[in-house]
Queue: 2 jobs
Job 1
Amino acid sequence: MNWFAHYFPNVVTMKADFVTATGETLYMVAITAIVAGVIGMAMGITLVVTAPGGILANRLVYNLLDKLVNLFRSIPFVILLAVIAPVTRLIVGTAIGTTAAIVPLIVGAAPFYARQVQNALVEVDRGIIEAAQAVGSGPVALVFRVYLRESCSELIRVSVVTLISIIDLTAMAGAVGGGGLGNLAIIIGYDRFETDVTVMALIIILALVFLVQMIGDWLARRTNHA
Amino acid sequence: MKLDAMIKLQHVDVTFNQQHRTVKAVRDVSLTVNRGDIYGIVGYSGAGKSTLVRVINRLQEPTAGQVEVNGQNMLALTNKQLRHARTKIGMIFQHFNLMNQRTIADNVAYPLKGSGLDKAAREAKVAHLLELVGLADQAQGYPAQLSGGQKQRVAIARALANDPEVLISDEATSALDPKTTGAILALLKELNEQLGVTIVLITHEMDAVKEICNKVAVMEDGQIIERGSLLQIFSQPKQPLTKDFINTSTQVNQAIEKISQQALTLSDTQRLIHLEYVGTAADAPLITELYKRYGVVSNILYGNVEILQGTPLGNLIVVMTGDQANLDDALNYCQQQQIHVSPVKLKQEVAQ
């Protein structure tokens, strides 16, 4: 371990901090993924079924949701963090800390995921939907037994993209007081000129990203029979 | 005795409102399909065939008109009733529309959920259906592993899952090669005979109609321009479009084109004639009679006999040689024998 102490002098003394920070990052990613996943999935499905020519076409709902997603996708995340601080305070009680960071993370990630889900679902051939309608399937069956089932592999793929994007966002949230590896990299590593801390935080984040990508790709391949 | 009319469309209109114009895809179409019919609807793409048949199971809502299937007013149904009614109207498509992520067996089982059958009964039914279409050994495979013809067989099994009374075939053979087309048509015919399922078959190929249909309607520009029994339509087509479809199918069109290319020159004592005959007229030794009675020599350039629903239908293109009076007498004689006579116009003449 000599070379490690040589190249990472500050990291060696901060083992506990790294464990905590990694835990915080995983916590933020997990909660955000679950909540934004559910919200984004619901929004994505709604976009597809209410779109013109969709199985429950509804111009008003579609346009409203479409504009809303566009709006939130346009706000840079750093600014979003600041802008929704009052809302965060209202929900969590504070605008600072790991749990508080989850609110803007969800608001940032859900519309992104919604668009990804929408793109995955519209890939399902219109003819397949028609064939299911022809045998008597209603909207619920069409969503759960056709749309989601047929695009399963594609959904896994876009979920991976979203998950990686959430990991990216947590690092940014960390920089403004959210804790986690981003916090460690900027507040300790960058501000105190302890570059080895920044590099170590980066290595852990990259490892997380690669792991997610690998597992995701494998699952997507396995579930695709087309 | 059950109701004879299985499908009854009355004065159906379908109008699409596009941004700058309205398109009348179906215009005032009335059509009755009887129980057990294999009813062919022929027309070029864009004629409104697909839109029309989608009105039957309300995949397409009609703008106006009445739709009855098996005595049930389809337009009066609630959403739930409509979904149930649709289980009794099977449908197959040009591009098969199978679910790629489900196994063959799962595709066929798809319509059975909610049918009240338990798991074992569903599995038995799927096995039986796959047996029926000749794909029992492929049950656990995925659609991507099948050929076009096999995919269409799976689609047929799926369409039959809920024992429908009607099967709608929307260009189901148009993406298949001729041999596979023949096999799929034979399967449809078999299902019609064995299960008594009424079939509506849309196509742009008269050959498919000729193969299995007992009745035909010809569509153009959103309207049915001609309809009747298969034999009627083939032996006495009235509309130019119908004639065109039939002459393409019997290859008379192609024959005339070839004859035209050979720069055939006819003298005053020769005439190029197209003879069409149906049923018993086909049995008489016509060519010999013409020579014996009038001294007219007939040189056959093209001949074709189709057997439609057990009745022969013949087409001959001949050059008749003889003097003018005899030729006229010979043609009169043909007409007396219930043979349809028409002079053939070569393509160059048409062009001039």
Job 2
Amino acid sequence: MTIDWSWIGEHIGELASLTLSHLEAAMTAVLLGLVLSLPLAVLAHRVRPLRGFLLGASNVLFTIPSIAVFVLLLPVSGLTRTTTVIGLTVYTLVVLLRNTVEGLESVPARTKEAARAMGTRPLRTLLAVEFPLALPVIMAGVRIATVMSISLVSVATYIGDGGLGQLFTDGFQRDFPTPVIAGVVLTLLLAVVADAVLVAVEYALTPWRRSRA
Amino acid sequence: MYALVVDLARWLTSGSQWTGPDGIGHRLAEHLQYSLLATLIAAAIGLPVGLLIGHTGRGAFLAINLASFGRALPTVGLVVLVFLAGGLSMLPVYVALVALAVPAIVTNTHAGMTAVDPDVKDAARGQGMRGHQVLFKVELPLALPLIMTGLRLALIQVVATATIAAYVSFGGLGRYVFDGLAQRDLVQVLGGAVLVAVVAIVLDVVLSTLQRVFALPHQRSGARRSAPTGTA
């Protein structure tokens, strides 16, 4: 199995646009997942009985195979980018929700009491004390969800989307390995780069953790 | 939408759909066969590696990074790649499924081993146990719950992904998904997807129940209350 470098040279533009489309699908899903998980996690954290229900429900969703999720969405949103993004979002929820709840739970009760004693209002305590302290655990979830989504986008190639995954179907149908190798390598690269960027983001967002290191 | 659900229910429950070489019964058996064999091979590779890394404390970096590598690896690409390299056989499917399952097994086994209290290991050594005795009589039993979790996660992922065997012209429940997509038969596609999801969920429930039943007494939740106190 040899790589046809001239094919890569001729298709560099296409590879770039597929990579961008791939990244866009994964990032939209993670952002949507965050937007959904943050309030749900606060709810699960505050209302005890809901905690088991919400975490259990996200676990069940995670058990459903990704190809099945995409296919089950077809009657709702058809062969579109929307289907890809909704499907991926469902998967990010299990990691993001669990980590956000665990992050909120890791905030020491004393810190919250101190905030209350200083007259900080509940909403401000949540935004200025609890979320920042929960950030390392939440960011760990964001990193896992991002890498997972980047890998899963390819599955959406079966419903006509899939970013770099299109290179897999293309190579398969033409019995031509070069696009497949390019797709696998670019997906792995994208995951590594995205993960490194998130580590940098976490570093920038948590200045108070640096002095200790 | 309603008509679709009715058609789907009819597809799933009609007797003729369940029998014959293209019937659900046969496809289900194929799917389980692929999944179980791949998970067994992955366990044969992943368990010793995870135990060794956990026991010696060397290569922890590998165990942790293997997890993110496994998460990032696009399974579809891997199947197609091995298929193009090796030709028409089940090999590509097994390679991809095993590659998917090994990281989950290694990292969970390693996590279970590192969670064992170092004092307990010291005590075992202090009693004159040898390295392999500490590993098999102390560390392994204590790490078992997390090891089982790794195997369960691996099997669930493999069941979900075994769908792609049909993409490279083999059987399993994925047959309905890909044939349905090719024939623009939405009911068949949805039927296949529902079946795969049900198999994954049922296996998950069965395995987590087994895990609870076979847990050591102190690992069961609430066992602390019923445990005898001060046996000395």
